[in-house]
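Hello forum,

I keep getting stuck at the same step: I have a sequence, I want structure tokens, and every attempt I make locally crashes halfway through. Rather than fight my setup again tonight, could one of you with a working pipeline run this one for me? It's a single chain of 148 residues.
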Amino acid sequence: MSQDNTIDYFLKTAWQTVANKYNVIASQHGFTQAAGYILINIHRDGTPVSQIANSTGVKTTSLSRVLNNLEGLGFIYRETSDTDKRSVKVYLTDLGREKRKIAKDVVREFNDFLNNSFSEKERALMTKMLVKISELATNYSPVFQIEP
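Reply #2:
Ran it on my machine without issues. Output:
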């Protein structure tokens, strides 16, 4: 089987193309695709770091790096809870709210572009297939085991 005939090849290249497009657009506004995704997941009343990690699927080491970068850019600030020192909430600054709006607008516009490029039937089939791939990947147990 050739690499460019596998389902995961097409999934990876499609997502990489989308992520690269988002990065090009985000860089024009002074941030990255990952930073924009995190900004979108920070709510008006602040969001616990643990919730950002859960909702974005970003690993804690990467999240910490992105949050430090966003704080350095003046997009966010963090506050530790008075009652639980382990609990930290992230808040958007005025500049962060501006960048969050840009990120949301970019996502909406790009998704409108994609949605308008597919028929309703194509969109429904693609969604169904992607959900199925997710479920299959979650439930997959490899038969082939590598010996130590």
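The two ends are 25 Å apart (CA to CA). If your local run keeps crashing, start a new thread with the error log.
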